[in-house]
Amino acid sequence: MAVRVPSGIPGLDKLIRGGFERGSMTVLSGGTGTGKTIFCIQFLLAGAKTGENGLFITFEELKEDIIRDAESFGWDLVSLEKSKKLFVHYYSPFEFEKFLSELEDIITKKDIKRLVIDSTSVFGLYLKDPYEIRKRIWEVSNLVKRWGVTAVVTSEVIGATELETAEHAPSVSRFGVEEFVADVLFILHYAGLGGDYDRTLQIVKMRRTDHMRGLFPMKITNKGIVISPKQSD
Ligand SMILES: Nc1ncnc2c1ncn2[C@@H]1O[C@H](COP(=O)(O)OP(=O)(O)OP(=O)(O)O)[C@@H](O)[C@H]1O
Ligand SMILES: [Mg+2]
Questions:
Q1: Is 202 in the pocket of ligand 1 (CB under 6 A)?
Q2: pLDDT class for 43, splitting at 50, 70, 90?
């Protein structure tokens, strides 16, 4: 039986048999403002609480922005970094090689068990050749598996913030490759209709897991993301 790693998202684990498989890679896809970064922070906070050190690699927002995003929910990343439980590293998209060469070293030296890469969409700024992009994403996923690190990487879906668009889009991720490498694929949607649960989390696939399928109502409160157990149509 695979070891399950709790996601840190209230309501989600009971839909996915207790959490993510240790050493798996989850791709979290969705349009802008759908909650990808918040999800990632919650995932690392859950690890920090249970002795699993976390590493947040940010390619888009600066480190200070991530810290501020977390602060608005009352999460203190600065003190977690001081106690060596959660680390936030910023790389510019042009430091991609530096990131790859340092990743293994950081994982081993800081005893990292949970990794976030937010987001893989910037890879395309540095690497023009789609083959190269696929190769690098493979490299990251192999590294993660080798070290038994559980990873969540985000990927922005262009122009697919709304449900209808996402359903008919040719791909659910930026390069159309992330989802093939992924063990787990979630898509976040924002309907923008108002109301209590006006967001959804779509569980598209989960390897080796008998999971619930489909769309689940989601909300972002001042305590973070919450998933409703009630499946929507
Ligand atoms: N305290 C809060 N209460 C409710 N909703 C909030 C709160 N803080 C932020 N949000 C919502 O969270 C969303 C932003 O989430 P997040 O930054 O995780 O999105 P994202 O998918 O990472 O976006 P991007 O692609 O731009 O990075 C916004 O839609 C915002 O309305
Ligand atoms: Mg974000």
A1: no
A2: very high
